[in-house]
Amino acid sequence: MHRSLIRHASQAMEYPLVRVSGVWLLLIGTVIAVATLVGGRFELNPFVFMVGYGVSLFVTEFHPYVKTRFAGPGELNSFQKKMARYGDISLFPLMFIMGGSFIPSGDWRMVWLGTLLATGIHFLLFVPVHGKPMAHLSLLCSTIALAGMLLSAVPFLYFGLLDGAVKMAFGIYLVSRRSSNQPPRVPAELLDPHNAFDKKFAGEDEQRI
To answer: Residue 173: is it exposed, middle or buried by C-beta count within 10 angstroms (0-12/13-18/19+)?
Structure first.
């Protein structure tokens, strides 16, 4: 039992689409930053955002070059596929609950902060799909959105640009990653302690001879 647990811990967890996710974050982060800069009365320009979102989605999901260039070997396992599906499905209900309720009042600041918060929360579901960096990204993006809600005197511009910058930074980081975690180095004596014990004493016998 002990030996099987050690062998399991030494295996690499595969994240074949982690670099594709990095491309997506880099693109959507840029879109959020640009849409914020030209936000006007909407705080974050919805027309620029929707066009940019559509282009980013097409590039990462349907453009063959991106998948060929950035996808790693292998494919997602059944659990990862399930979590990715849950993550995609959860985003829009979260956006509707946290941001959509402010649309009738025309409070665009809260609409977009709620949307950014929903996005940050939904990143948690992608931790099994792309690795631990998604948990850190979730925490940072959620914190930025909550800070924007609490610090109402601070213009939305700063929070929108910061959110976009964080996504771009994580995108660059993920693009530079390998498709799997490096397995921890497990000493041979832990994997096969009896064999290591025999080798140790065999070596001592040779020295005596």
So the answer is: middle
Q: Tell me, rounded to whole angstroms, the distance of Cα 33 from its chain centroid.
A: 18
Domain residue extents for the chain: 14-180
pLDDT digits (tens, 9 = 90+) for 75-130: 899 999 999 999 999 999 999 999 999 999 999 999 999 999 999 999 999 999 99
Spatial CB neighbours of 70, under 8 Å, sequence gap ≥ 6:
19, 20, 22, 23, 175
The span from the CA of 122 to the CA of 91, in Å, is 6
